[in-house]
Amino acid sequence: AMLQSRARVSVEAGGPTIDPNIYGQFVEHLGRGVYEGIWVGPDSPIPNVRGIRSDVVAALRRVRVPVIRWPGGCFADGYHWRDGIGAAGKRPRGINSAWGRTPETNAFGTHEFMDFLGQIGASAFVSVNLGSGSVREADDWLRYMTAPQDSAPGQERAANGHPAPWQVPYIGVGNESWGCGGNMSADTYAAAFRHYAAFLRTYSGPRARLIAVGADTDDYAWTERVMAQAMLWRPEPTPLGLTSDTPLMWGLSLHFYTFAGNDWHAKGRNVGFDENGWAAALARVALTDELIRRHAAIMDRYDPGKRVALAVDEWGGWFESEKDAPSQLYLESTLRDALIAAKSLNIFNRHADRVRMANLAQMVNVIQSLVLTRGSAMVVTPTYHVFDMYKVHQGAEALPVQVETPDYVHGDVRLAGIDLSASRDSAGKLHVTIANLDPARANRLRIHLDGGRWHRAGAQVLTADAIDTRITFDKADPFVPRPLAVHLSGGEVELVLPSKSVTVLEVE
Ligand code: AHR
């Protein structure tokens, strides 16, 4: 029988702005994430502009990618930026020490990254090397990128083909310093962050926004220690009562990956899974809400004004790669990934007061991708369609939502059957995005709009035949969203959500 649900959107209540950067991306030198996925080189038969493939650029422009974090990940703390500038033929052939000791040609470096950002219209989030680098190396990189042309670093940049300084609005101060980025304790990292923060700055454009390394998953002690010791220049008042009030950090990160269960060493397959794999992954995604609430509650104690953002700068579904995967951490995408993305993004939207950036791991050919490439071919994933459907939330005002819905129950898993977030854009249009987690049952949803006058409603839905329907290079895309019937009357909207689906509703 069809399930029945009710929701209420508080249109008049208003809420925080959904930072467009919640729809941000992460790209690392890993597998074919950069080489082939973005960079094919100017001499490639694959259509490109200055070596950057045009099909990928066009796809990313369409979903309005706002910001990209680069060059890692674990790669960042072994990256030395000077290897990646200068004449293409003269760059050292390096070794990717983070990922399989594979060759690193350095063909894609700072200039190519900035060119790529320019082509898609996204902002830079550059992670500097704290683990194996130095304050001097990181500062030199920022000078190289942002100093005016009449300075020595600006002249060097100009000699390499880019006279004007670039804008670097976001700077990651290390990556996973508790693990691959340095095996540090929270106290050691807090001291290192303070040290770097004293020297890292931009030399033109917007002031540097530093993002400190935050917790892995539920490491609340890390958040506590780093907030206590590194948020402010002077965390404790002096005997005469002097304090400082300007946060050293713009944001604190959080890394959280979804797999089928809670075991890093048994993540489950990414294709060919059954309902156990479906339910276990969705249960883990649901933890995102608890993680944000608990990390944010700690941040609230040090930063009640919510000046410091929680930046979920690595998130996504990470399953076991198939043995014949064409590159490291390459995953084929299925309908389950669309649900993972939809639920995660709804949760970020609902926490827009504190979550002001998030970066999907990783944009191309790695883990939960937006696009996949195979030589000259490119396909967009179900996750891509979700980002496309959800882009209407970028920069909109988040609205409170309440929902009454039957639970989706499978084995030990019990979750609210549907998951929603809502926003109102600058033109006054209302958007509600809805995930129906139930793999078998449709859900008739009635949404009461508390306030506003509405005269038109429409919806698009993404679903597929099976929970593990996958994207392939040789068949038509089975995930293209299609129109869904909506009934609007007075302040109420009614629609029937297919099982295992993601819907975007627009009301104006
Ligand atoms: O995204 C893959 C890896 O996951 C990143 O390099 C690292 O930061 C995290 O552990």
TrEMBL record:
- Enzyme class label: hydrolase
Q: Which residues form the Alpha-L-arabinofuranosidase C-terminal domain?
A: 313-501
Q: Which Pfam families match?
A: Alpha-L-AF_C, ASD1_dom
Give the enzyme's EC designation.
3.2.1.55
Catalytic reactions of this protein: Hydrolysis of terminal non-reducing alpha-L-arabinofuranoside residues in alpha-L-arabinosides
Give the keywords, sorted. Carbohydrate metabolism, Glycosidase, Hydrolase, Signal
InterPro entries on file: Alpha-L-AF_C (IPR010720), ASD1_cat (IPR055235), GH (IPR017853), Glyco_hydro_b (IPR013780)
- Which SUPFAM superfamilies does the record associate with it? (Trans)glycosidases, Glycosyl hydrolase domain
Q: Which family does it belong to?
A: Belongs to the glycosyl hydrolase 51 family.
Query: How does this protein assemble?
Result: Homohexamer; trimer of dimers.
Q: Could you tell me what this protein is called?
A: non-reducing end alpha-L-arabinofuranosidase
**Organism this protein belongs to:** Novosphingobium clariflavum
